[in-house]
Write a structure and sequence with these properties.
Layout (H helix, E strand, L loop, with lengths): L6 H12 L22 E11 L7 E10 L3 E8 L8 E13 L2 E11 L6 E9 L4 E9 L2 E12 L3 E8 L5 E9 L4 E10 L6 E11 L2
Antiparallel strand pairs: 1-2, 1-12, 2-3, 3-4, 4-5, 5-6, 6-7, 7-8, 8-9, 9-10, 10-11, 11-12
C-alpha cells in the first residue's frame, strides 16, 4: 500500500501528541462505517468490555487511529487484557467513494491483523439521510461471509444514538450512545446482544481526538 512509507513517521507523531472488537476502526458500537478520523487527525480510545452479569470488565484495550489524508485510516491497538495473545493488532481502511449530498460513501478495510489471527476484510457503505445515517456492509471472518447493518442519529448537539446487527451465531447486535464533552473528548457506551443467546455484554470507550501535526 502506498501509504505504508508514511506509517511509522505518522505513528511517531501520534504517540508524541498523545502521551497524556479487537482492532478498532471508525464505526458504530460494533460495525465499521465509511467514516475515517480525518486528514492529519488521530483518535485514541480507552476501551473496557465485559458481561453485564456480573457487571465487571474483563477486556481492556488501547485503540489508536490516524488519518493519512481524507481517504486512508490506519490503526495500531494494544490488548492489555490478562492473558491476551496477541497483544498488538492492526487495521486499515480506504474510502474509495466519499459520498456527500446524499450520495453513498463506500469503504474497504481489514481488521484483526495480528500474529496467529485470521484477518477480517470488509466492505461498507454509508449514506446520510435527513434525520439519520444508514450503514450496510459485509465481512469475511473464519470462512464465513456475514452481512451487517447499522444506523446512527444525532440527538441534539452532543448526543448520538446508534444500533447495529451482524448476521451469524458468532456475532451480535448492539445498541449504544455517544456523548461529546468537547470537540476532542467523548464517551461511548453500549450493550452487546450475542446472536447465540449467551449473556449480554457491555462496552465503554473514552475517546480522545485531535490533530497530530
Amino acid at each position: 500500500m502506498k501509504c505504508c512509507r508514511h506509517l511509522l513517521p505518522a505513528l511517531a507523531c501520534l504517540l508524541a501528541a498523545a502521551v497524556p472488537g479487537l482492532a478498532c476502526y471508525s464505526g458504530l458500537t460494533v460495525i465499521p462505517t465509511a467514516d475515517t478520523v480525518g486528514a492529519g487527525q488521530y483518535g485514541i480510545e480507552l476501551q473496557a468490555d465485559g458481561p453485564t452479569s456480573p457487571f465487571e470488565s474483563d477486556t481492556h484495550i488501547l485503540n489508536t487511529e490516524i488519518g493519512l489524508g481524507d481517504r486512508v485510516e490506519v490503526g495500531v491497538d494494544f490488548d492489555l487484557s490478562k492473558g491476551a495473545d496477541p497483544r498488538v493488532l492492526f487495521n486499515g481502511k480506504y474510502v474509495f467513494a466519499t459520498g456527500g449530498d446524499g450520495a453513498l460513501a463506500l469503504a474497504a478495510g481489514v481488521q484483526n491483523i495480528g500474529n496467529g489471527l485470521t484477518a477480517v476484510p470488509y466492505l461498507v457503505g454509508t449514506r446520510d439521510f435527513t434525520a439519520c445515517r444508514g450503514h450496510l456492509g459485509v465481512q469475511r471472518a473464519e470462512g464465513n461471509t456475514r452481512p451487517f447493518v447499522g444506523i446512527d442519529a444525532p440527538l441534539g448537539a452532543r448526543w448520538t444514538l446508534m444500533a447495529d446487527y451482524t448476521a451469524g451465531d458468532e456475532n451480535s447486535a448492539s445498541a449504544g450512545v455517544n456523548y461529546q464533552f468537547t470537540d476532542r473528548v467523548g464517551l461511548l457506551g453500549g450493550l452487546i446482544f450475542p446472536n447465540d443467546g449467551s449473556g449480554t455484554g457491555f462496552t465503554v470507550h473514552l475517546v480522545f481526538n485531535g490533530p497530530y501535526r
